[in-house]
């Protein structure tokens, strides 16, 4: 990484490349949460112990991200070079509505969030081009903080007008799909999460999202595969398997159907664009 992002008297340093966040103690006393966004093949481990003797530990690798308490210690697994971003989530810079939601954001959470991965990619591109400064970093931190608060915080349980499924239910379904993306996912499994019959769930889910459950799962598999193709360099057959496709042929057909290109062509285009 080229250089650290400077701090300001009002906000302080709230967004850092991961390798600097491992050694820069100035980040630790300020925020209440930190968002860890590893890139490439980095595997980070966050650990923390409390006064009761209980210890929390979580492993984070792309394409997943994690929310951890400010006091947690970060380290790499197998001495990997720590590439990625650590964003301090400071609720004091948010609006009143988001501050209320932020109080309920769960600590020690790991999830796959395409928006946050896109934000990390944009941050990396700006940093490598030497275009990022404290104001830009703070702006990103604010946007990410609001996103986390609204998506995973207290107000995520608010029901949309005339919607049978609440945001909290939809988030629960999304979390289950992301956690089990490599496995077979049945409509019946999703229906159980929100205490509905499979037929009723399929109907209200399509009303709420515009897509039937099986198409939603398929599109999430494609998104996950796209993220892997951009972030890492495993064999294509491994990408397909980790995204939940049963065969390489099925992976290629479905990926081409919804993106317009094959997985191999998508990877080559992304490499060329990055080079």
Tally of DSSP β-strands: 8
Number of separate helices: 11
Q: How would you state the average pLDDT, rounded?
A: 80
Query: N-to-C SSE series?
Result: EHEEEEEEHEHHHHHHHHH
SS class: alpha+beta
- Tell me the number of structural domains: 2
CATH topology of the largest domain: Jelly Rolls
From the N-terminal CA to the C-terminal CA, the straight-line distance is 17 Å
Whole-angstrom Rg: 20 Å
CATH architecture of the largest domain: Sandwich
Key phrases:
46% helix, Jelly Rolls, 275 residues, 3-stranded antiparallel sheet, globular, 2 domains, alpha+beta, 5-stranded antiparallel sheet, Arc Repressor Mutant, subunit A
């Amino acid at each position: 990484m080229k250089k650290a992002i400077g701090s300001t008297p009002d906000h302080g340093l709230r967004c850092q490349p991961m390798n600097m966040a491992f050694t820069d103690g100035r980040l630790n006393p300020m925020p209440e949460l930190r968002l860890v966004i590893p890139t490439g093949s980095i595997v980070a481990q966050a650990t923390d112990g409390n006064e009761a003797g209980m210890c929390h530990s979580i492993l984070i690798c792309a394409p997943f991200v994690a929310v951890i308490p400010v006091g947690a210690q970060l380290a790499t697994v197998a001495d990997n070079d720590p590439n990625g971003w650590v964003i301090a989530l400071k609720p004091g810079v948010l609006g009143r509505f988001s501050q209320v939601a932020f109080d309920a954001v769960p600590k020690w959470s790991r999830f796959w969030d395409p928006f946050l991965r896109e934000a990390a990619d944009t941050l990396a591109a700006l940093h490598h081009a030497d275009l990022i400064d404290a104001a830009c970093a703070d702006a990103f931190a604010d946007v990410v903080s609001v996103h986390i608060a609204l998506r995973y915080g207290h107000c995520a349980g608010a029901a949309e007008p005339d919607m049978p499924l609440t945001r909290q239910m939809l988030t629960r379904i999304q979390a289950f799909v992301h956690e089990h993306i490599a496995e077979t996912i049945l409509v019946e499994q999703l229906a159980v999460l929100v205490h509905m019959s499979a037929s009723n769930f399929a109907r209200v889910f399509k009303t709420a999202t515009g897509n039937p459950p099986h198409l939603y799962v398929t599109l999430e598999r494609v998104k996950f595969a796209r993220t892997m193709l951009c972030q890492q360099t495993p064999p294509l057959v491994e990408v397909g398997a980790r995204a939940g496709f049963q065969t390489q042929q099925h992976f290629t057909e479905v990926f081409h159907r919804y993106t317009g290109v094959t997985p191999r062509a998508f990877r080559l285009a992304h490499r060329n664009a990055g080079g």
